Amino acid sequence: MNPVSEVALDPSNPKVMYAAAAPGVFKTTDGGSTWARTSDLVQVTAVAIDPNNPSTVFASSYTGARKTTNGGASWTEVHPNPTKLSGAKALAIDPSNPSTVYAVLITENARDDASGGLSKSIDGGSTFSYINSGLPFSVFYYGFDTSALAIDPSAPSTLFAYSVGLAKSTNGGASWLPLNVEFPIYVAALAVDPSRSSFVYAATQSGFLRSSDGGFTWELLLNGLPTALLTDVIVDPSDSKIVYVSTENAGVYKSNDRGQHFTVFNEGLPVTRVNSLVIDSTGTFLAAATDLGVFTISPGDGPLPPIIRRRCGNKCAH
Protein backbone atom coordinates (compact mmCIF):
# COMPACT_ATOMS: atom_id res chain seq x y z
CA MET A 1 0.00 0.00 0.00
CA ASN A 2 1.09 3.57 -0.66
CA PRO A 3 0.80 6.29 1.98
CA VAL A 4 -1.45 9.33 1.73
CA SER A 5 0.39 12.49 2.77
CA GLU A 6 -2.50 14.92 3.09
CA VAL A 7 -6.24 15.32 2.59
CA ALA A 8 -8.06 18.54 1.68
CA LEU A 9 -11.78 19.06 2.28
CA ASP A 10 -14.19 21.09 0.17
CA PRO A 11 -15.34 23.71 2.71
CA SER A 12 -18.88 23.71 1.32
CA ASN A 13 -19.19 19.91 1.12
CA PRO A 14 -16.80 17.68 3.10
CA LYS A 15 -17.88 14.67 1.07
CA VAL A 16 -15.67 16.15 -1.63
CA MET A 17 -12.03 15.46 -0.75
CA TYR A 18 -8.67 15.43 -2.48
CA ALA A 19 -5.90 13.12 -1.33
CA ALA A 20 -2.17 13.56 -1.94
CA ALA A 21 -0.82 10.06 -2.51
CA ALA A 22 2.22 8.41 -4.05
CA PRO A 23 0.41 7.43 -7.31
CA GLY A 24 -1.13 10.90 -7.71
CA VAL A 25 -3.92 13.25 -6.65
CA PHE A 26 -7.19 11.44 -5.94
CA LYS A 27 -10.68 12.87 -5.58
CA THR A 28 -13.85 11.59 -3.96
CA THR A 29 -17.33 13.11 -4.13
CA ASP A 30 -19.02 10.60 -1.82
CA GLY A 31 -17.11 10.97 1.42
CA GLY A 32 -14.42 8.43 0.56
CA SER A 33 -16.45 5.46 -0.67
CA THR A 34 -14.96 5.78 -4.17
CA TRP A 35 -11.90 7.65 -5.45
CA ALA A 36 -10.54 8.58 -8.87
CA ARG A 37 -7.10 9.82 -9.91
CA THR A 38 -7.29 13.37 -11.24
CA SER A 39 -3.77 14.50 -12.22
CA ASP A 40 -0.51 13.29 -13.73
CA LEU A 41 1.58 14.18 -10.68
CA VAL A 42 3.21 11.35 -8.74
CA GLN A 43 4.70 11.23 -5.24
CA VAL A 44 2.30 14.01 -4.27
CA THR A 45 3.21 15.74 -1.02
CA ALA A 46 0.61 18.47 -0.57
CA VAL A 47 -2.88 19.54 -1.62
CA ALA A 48 -4.86 22.69 -0.77
CA ILE A 49 -8.36 23.95 -1.70
CA ASP A 50 -9.33 27.57 -2.29
CA PRO A 51 -11.75 28.29 0.61
CA ASN A 52 -13.84 30.68 -1.49
CA ASN A 53 -13.86 28.66 -4.71
CA PRO A 54 -13.57 24.91 -4.04
CA SER A 55 -13.15 24.16 -7.74
CA THR A 56 -9.67 25.68 -7.45
CA VAL A 57 -7.15 23.25 -6.01
CA PHE A 58 -3.36 23.27 -5.74
CA ALA A 59 -1.25 20.11 -5.54
CA SER A 60 2.48 19.58 -5.34
CA SER A 61 5.07 16.83 -5.55
CA TYR A 62 8.83 16.80 -5.10
CA THR A 63 9.33 17.59 -8.77
CA GLY A 64 6.56 20.06 -9.57
CA ALA A 65 3.15 21.51 -8.80
CA ARG A 66 -0.24 21.88 -10.46
CA LYS A 67 -3.39 24.00 -10.22
CA THR A 68 -6.92 23.20 -11.31
CA THR A 69 -9.81 25.63 -11.56
CA ASN A 70 -12.43 23.05 -12.55
CA GLY A 71 -12.33 20.55 -9.72
CA GLY A 72 -9.56 18.41 -11.17
CA ALA A 73 -10.90 17.99 -14.71
CA SER A 74 -7.71 19.64 -16.02
CA TRP A 75 -4.52 20.97 -14.44
CA THR A 76 -1.88 23.55 -15.33
CA GLU A 77 1.71 23.81 -14.10
CA VAL A 78 2.67 26.25 -11.36
CA HIS A 79 6.15 26.86 -9.97
CA PRO A 80 6.27 27.49 -6.22
CA ASN A 81 10.09 27.57 -6.26
CA PRO A 82 10.99 30.69 -8.28
CA THR A 83 14.43 29.43 -9.37
CA LYS A 84 14.09 25.64 -9.51
CA LEU A 85 11.70 23.15 -11.06
CA SER A 86 10.84 21.61 -7.73
CA GLY A 87 7.73 21.47 -5.65
CA ALA A 88 6.54 22.07 -2.11
CA LYS A 89 6.27 20.03 1.07
CA ALA A 90 3.17 21.99 2.10
CA LEU A 91 0.79 24.60 0.71
CA ALA A 92 -1.36 27.14 2.55
CA ILE A 93 -3.99 29.52 1.18
CA ASP A 94 -4.83 32.80 2.90
CA PRO A 95 -8.44 32.36 4.12
CA SER A 96 -9.19 36.07 3.71
CA ASN A 97 -7.57 36.43 0.28
CA PRO A 98 -7.30 33.15 -1.67
CA SER A 99 -5.15 34.80 -4.33
CA THR A 100 -2.39 34.60 -1.73
CA VAL A 101 -0.77 31.16 -1.62
CA TYR A 102 2.20 30.13 0.52
CA ALA A 103 4.53 27.22 -0.19
CA VAL A 104 6.96 25.37 2.08
CA LEU A 105 9.62 24.54 -0.45
CA ILE A 106 11.51 21.32 -1.05
CA THR A 107 15.27 21.81 -1.14
CA GLU A 108 18.08 19.55 -2.21
CA ASN A 109 21.64 20.03 -0.96
CA ALA A 110 20.44 22.91 1.20
CA ARG A 111 23.91 23.87 2.39
CA ASP A 112 24.90 24.63 -1.23
CA ASP A 113 21.61 26.16 -2.29
CA ALA A 114 19.80 28.82 -0.26
CA SER A 115 16.84 28.88 -2.63
CA GLY A 116 14.53 26.90 -0.38
CA GLY A 117 12.50 28.02 2.61
CA LEU A 118 9.21 29.74 1.86
CA SER A 119 7.63 31.35 -1.17
CA LYS A 120 4.47 33.38 -1.70
CA SER A 121 2.13 34.09 -4.60
CA ILE A 122 -0.25 37.04 -4.62
CA ASP A 123 -1.75 36.24 -8.02
CA GLY A 124 -3.33 32.86 -7.41
CA GLY A 125 -0.19 30.86 -8.14
CA SER A 126 0.81 32.43 -11.46
CA THR A 127 4.08 33.66 -9.94
CA PHE A 128 5.89 33.04 -6.66
CA SER A 129 8.66 34.92 -4.87
CA TYR A 130 10.82 33.99 -1.88
CA ILE A 131 9.81 35.32 1.55
CA ASN A 132 12.88 34.32 3.54
CA SER A 133 14.02 37.68 4.95
CA GLY A 134 14.89 37.05 8.60
CA LEU A 135 13.95 33.37 8.47
CA PRO A 136 16.41 31.23 10.48
CA PHE A 137 19.13 29.81 8.24
CA SER A 138 21.81 27.20 8.86
CA VAL A 139 25.06 27.85 7.01
CA PHE A 140 26.40 24.48 8.17
CA TYR A 141 23.97 22.16 6.42
CA TYR A 142 20.26 22.79 6.44
CA GLY A 143 19.97 26.19 4.76
CA PHE A 144 16.34 27.33 4.66
CA ASP A 145 15.11 23.84 5.47
CA THR A 146 11.56 24.80 6.41
CA SER A 147 9.23 22.09 7.69
CA ALA A 148 6.09 23.86 8.95
CA LEU A 149 3.97 26.94 8.30
CA ALA A 150 0.76 28.20 9.91
CA ILE A 151 -1.51 31.15 9.14
CA ASP A 152 -3.36 32.88 11.97
CA PRO A 153 -7.03 32.49 10.86
CA SER A 154 -8.10 35.66 12.70
CA ALA A 155 -5.19 37.76 11.37
CA PRO A 156 -3.93 36.13 8.15
CA SER A 157 -0.96 38.48 7.80
CA THR A 158 0.46 36.78 10.91
CA LEU A 159 2.42 33.64 10.09
CA PHE A 160 4.49 31.15 12.04
CA ALA A 161 7.19 29.02 10.43
CA TYR A 162 9.86 26.58 11.51
CA SER A 163 13.10 26.60 9.54
CA VAL A 164 15.98 25.37 11.73
CA GLY A 165 14.39 27.72 14.29
CA LEU A 166 10.94 29.17 14.94
CA ALA A 167 10.00 32.52 13.43
CA LYS A 168 6.98 34.82 13.28
CA SER A 169 5.86 37.31 10.66
CA THR A 170 3.19 39.97 11.09
CA ASN A 171 3.35 41.27 7.51
CA GLY A 172 2.53 38.24 5.41
CA GLY A 173 6.11 36.97 5.25
CA ALA A 174 7.75 40.21 4.06
CA SER A 175 10.01 39.89 7.10
CA TRP A 176 10.47 37.40 9.91
CA LEU A 177 11.33 37.72 13.57
CA PRO A 178 13.22 34.70 14.92
CA LEU A 179 11.72 33.69 18.26
CA ASN A 180 14.40 33.14 20.87
CA VAL A 181 13.11 29.85 22.22
CA GLU A 182 14.76 26.45 22.22
CA PHE A 183 12.89 24.13 19.92
CA PRO A 184 13.39 20.50 18.85
CA ILE A 185 15.40 19.87 15.72
CA TYR A 186 12.25 19.10 13.76
CA VAL A 187 8.75 20.60 13.91
CA ALA A 188 6.25 18.71 11.78
CA ALA A 189 3.31 21.11 12.03
CA LEU A 190 2.11 24.37 13.57
CA ALA A 191 -1.44 25.60 14.25
CA VAL A 192 -3.01 28.80 15.61
CA ASP A 193 -6.20 28.89 17.67
CA PRO A 194 -8.83 30.58 15.44
CA SER A 195 -10.63 32.27 18.34
CA ARG A 196 -7.71 33.00 20.70
CA SER A 197 -4.68 33.66 18.52
CA SER A 198 -2.37 33.94 21.51
CA PHE A 199 -2.51 30.13 21.60
CA VAL A 200 -0.13 28.52 19.10
CA TYR A 201 0.61 24.79 18.91
CA ALA A 202 3.50 22.76 17.58
CA ALA A 203 3.63 19.04 16.75
CA THR A 204 7.27 18.04 17.08
CA GLN A 205 9.57 15.05 17.34
CA SER A 206 9.82 15.81 21.05
CA GLY A 207 6.09 16.07 21.73
CA PHE A 208 3.30 18.65 21.87
CA LEU A 209 4.28 22.25 22.58
CA ARG A 210 1.92 25.10 23.40
CA SER A 211 2.38 28.84 23.53
CA SER A 212 -0.18 31.11 25.18
CA ASP A 213 1.55 34.39 24.32
CA GLY A 214 1.69 34.35 20.54
CA GLY A 215 4.75 32.16 20.21
CA PHE A 216 7.25 33.87 22.49
CA THR A 217 7.28 31.26 25.26
CA TRP A 218 6.39 27.57 25.08
CA GLU A 219 5.58 24.64 27.34
CA LEU A 220 5.87 20.92 26.64
CA LEU A 221 2.60 19.07 27.35
CA LEU A 222 2.60 15.26 27.19
CA ASN A 223 -0.20 14.33 29.58
CA GLY A 224 -2.00 11.37 27.97
CA LEU A 225 0.31 11.06 24.95
CA PRO A 226 2.09 7.70 24.79
CA THR A 227 4.68 8.96 22.31
CA ALA A 228 6.53 12.18 21.61
CA LEU A 229 6.71 11.52 17.86
CA LEU A 230 3.98 13.81 16.52
CA THR A 231 3.17 14.47 12.86
CA ASP A 232 0.34 17.03 12.85
CA VAL A 233 -1.85 19.28 15.00
CA ILE A 234 -5.24 20.81 14.14
CA VAL A 235 -7.79 22.89 16.04
CA ASP A 236 -11.55 22.37 15.87
CA PRO A 237 -12.85 25.65 14.33
CA SER A 238 -16.26 25.21 15.96
CA ASP A 239 -14.78 24.82 19.47
CA SER A 240 -11.16 25.86 19.65
CA LYS A 241 -10.61 24.26 23.05
CA ILE A 242 -10.56 20.95 21.12
CA VAL A 243 -7.18 20.05 19.64
CA TYR A 244 -6.21 16.90 17.74
CA VAL A 245 -2.70 15.54 17.20
CA SER A 246 -1.50 12.67 15.03
CA THR A 247 1.50 10.48 15.74
CA GLU A 248 4.07 8.39 13.93
CA ASN A 249 3.15 5.16 15.70
CA ALA A 250 0.18 5.61 18.04
CA GLY A 251 -2.69 7.02 15.99
CA VAL A 252 -4.72 10.11 16.89
CA TYR A 253 -5.23 11.86 20.23
CA LYS A 254 -7.75 14.49 21.28
CA SER A 255 -7.65 17.26 23.87
CA ASN A 256 -10.67 19.15 25.21
CA ASP A 257 -8.59 21.74 27.06
CA ARG A 258 -6.18 23.21 24.51
CA GLY A 259 -3.64 20.45 24.91
CA GLN A 260 -3.40 20.30 28.68
CA HIS A 261 -4.61 16.67 28.60
CA PHE A 262 -5.02 14.16 25.77
CA THR A 263 -7.05 10.99 25.32
CA VAL A 264 -6.80 8.32 22.64
CA PHE A 265 -9.06 8.78 19.60
CA ASN A 266 -8.35 5.58 17.71
CA GLU A 267 -11.29 3.18 17.71
CA GLY A 268 -11.44 1.69 14.21
CA LEU A 269 -8.10 3.16 13.18
CA PRO A 270 -5.40 0.53 12.44
CA VAL A 271 -1.96 0.76 13.97
CA THR A 272 -0.13 2.77 11.34
CA ARG A 273 1.56 6.10 10.83
CA VAL A 274 -0.87 9.02 10.59
CA ASN A 275 0.66 11.68 8.36
CA SER A 276 -1.82 14.53 8.72
CA LEU A 277 -5.31 15.53 9.86
CA VAL A 278 -8.03 17.86 8.59
CA ILE A 279 -11.39 18.90 10.04
CA ASP A 280 -14.36 20.70 8.53
CA SER A 281 -15.71 24.06 9.71
CA THR A 282 -18.50 22.47 11.76
CA GLY A 283 -16.19 20.12 13.66
CA THR A 284 -18.24 17.09 12.60
CA PHE A 285 -16.05 15.63 9.87
CA LEU A 286 -12.47 14.58 10.56
CA ALA A 287 -10.14 12.93 8.05
CA ALA A 288 -6.79 11.28 8.69
CA ALA A 289 -4.20 10.71 5.97
CA THR A 290 -2.30 7.55 6.87
CA ASP A 291 0.13 5.05 5.41
CA LEU A 292 -2.90 2.80 4.77
CA GLY A 293 -5.10 5.40 3.08
CA VAL A 294 -7.70 7.91 4.22
CA PHE A 295 -9.86 7.30 7.29
CA THR A 296 -12.78 9.56 8.20
CA ILE A 297 -15.32 10.19 10.91
CA SER A 298 -18.70 11.48 9.77
CA PRO A 299 -21.32 11.09 12.48
CA GLY A 300 -23.87 13.55 11.12
CA ASP A 301 -25.37 15.53 13.96
CA GLY A 302 -23.69 15.74 17.33
CA PRO A 303 -20.08 15.60 18.54
CA LEU A 304 -17.49 13.34 16.97
CA PRO A 305 -17.49 9.81 18.40
CA PRO A 306 -14.27 7.75 18.35
CA ILE A 307 -15.34 5.62 15.39
CA ILE A 308 -13.52 5.66 12.08
CA ARG A 309 -16.11 5.10 9.37
CA ARG A 310 -14.50 4.96 5.95
CA ARG A 311 -11.22 4.67 4.15
CA CYS A 312 -10.12 5.28 0.61
CA GLY A 313 -10.49 2.52 -1.93
CA ASN A 314 -7.85 0.52 -3.71
CA LYS A 315 -7.17 3.18 -6.33
CA CYS A 316 -6.06 5.53 -3.61
CA ALA A 317 -4.28 3.16 -1.25
CA HIS A 318 -2.49 0.72 -3.53
How would you describe this structure to a colleague?
With 318 residues, this protein is an all-beta fold. The protein has a domain at 181-265: Beta Barrel (Thrombin, subunit H). It contains one helix and 28 strands. It has one helix spanning 314-317; strands at 4-10, 13-21, 24-28, 36-37, 44-49, 57-61, 65-68, 76-78, 88-93, 101-105, 118-121, 129-130, 146-151, 159-163, 165-169, 177-178, 187-192, 200-204, 207-211, 219-221, 230-235, 243-247, 252-255, 263-264, 274-279, 286-290, 293-297, 310-311. A four-stranded antiparallel beta sheet has the order 1-2-3-4. The protein has a four-stranded antiparallel beta sheet with strand order 5-6-7-8, with no helix packed on it. It has a four-stranded antiparallel beta sheet with strand order 9-10-11-12, with no helix packed on it. Strand 19 (207-211) and strand 20 (219-221) form a beta hairpin. The termini are close together.
